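Colleagues,

For the teaching module next term, I've prepared a clean inverse folding example: a structure given as tokens, and then the sequence designed for it. I'd like students to try predicting residues themselves before seeing the answer, so please don't circulate the second half yet.
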């Protein structure tokens, strides 16, 4: 991809989100257990997130890896996913993701104590990293995040808050909203992901199962994205709706 296009992508894309979906179906289509799909999904996640930061220079990446509803899956699958998360939390973060600040946007409720400690540890270790932020949506629900904010506002005693004040109670505090949301696997829904932050995001749905999602496809989506006319409720500068 030409450097000029990369420069436009960097300028127009401050925050990208992924709903990583289709690991199970990827495995099923190969007659493999779902757990193998998740293993491959993790490899793809690492590759794609790195590419966002280091190829395309996007400052903030949010990845939905486990929803508050995913606890309702069979215990063996949940256990396998937790095992993968544990491993992921223990990598040498500063080496694998240089200049990236790790930010947990999920809830600690129901997470085992050792994982909470690993997350806190990682947050501490990366807190001064700059300029990138990786929002990991583990045990995340948009409803949960918003309710949590509302309850903290009530606790503060405030009677009303502005949009900016409300946003300071979200786990994406001080971050710009989502510019792009990509969901793999063909489903066209948001499944409780970043409900507040995606208000004006451009939504992209691809049939590709997450483990097969490539940097090439990411690049194609980004090019499509930069050619969109994001109006934010306005009309064209010259006053003519086109
Ligand atoms: C996404 O893949 C990963 C998680 C939700 C943790 P799925 O496991 O949802 O895969 P499908 O949708 O069953 O194919
Ligand atoms: C959404 O995927 C959650 C994550 C990607 C972590 P699901 O596979 O859980 O969503 P639904 O059930 O198809 O809506
Ligand atoms: Mg799914």
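(Answer key — instructors only)
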């Amino acid at each position: 991809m030409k450097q000029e296009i990369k420069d436009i992508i960097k300028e127009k894309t401050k925050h990208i989100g992924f709903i990583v979906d289709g690991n199970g179906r990827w495995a099923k289509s190969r007659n493999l257990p779902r757990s193998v799909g998740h293993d491959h999904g993790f490899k793809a996640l690492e590759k794609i997130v790195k590419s966002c930061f280091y190829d395309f220079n996007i400052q903030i990446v949010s990845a939905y890896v486990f929803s508050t509803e995913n606890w309702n899956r069979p215990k063996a699958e949940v256990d396998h996913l937790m095992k993968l998360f544990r491993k992921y939390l223990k990598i040498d973060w500063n080496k694998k993701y240089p200049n990236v600040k790790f930010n947990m946007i999920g809830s600690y409720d129901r997470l085992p104590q050792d994982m909470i400690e690993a997350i806190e540890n990682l947050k501490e270790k990366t807190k001064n990293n700059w300029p990138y932020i990786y929002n990991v949506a583990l045990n995340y629900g948009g409803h949960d995040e918003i309710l949590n904010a509302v309850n903290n506002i009530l606790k503060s005693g405030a009677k009303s808050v502005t949009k900016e004040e409300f946003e300071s109670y979200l786990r994406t505090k001080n971050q710009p909203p989502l510019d792009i949301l990509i969901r793999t696997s063909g489903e066209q829904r948001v499944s409780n992901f970043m409900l507040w932050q995606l208000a004006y995001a451009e939504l992209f749905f691809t049939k590709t199962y997450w483990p097969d999602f490539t940097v090439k496809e990411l690049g194609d989506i980004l090019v499509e994205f930069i050619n969109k006319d994001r109006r934010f409720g306005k009309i064209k500068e010259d006053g003519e709706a086109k």
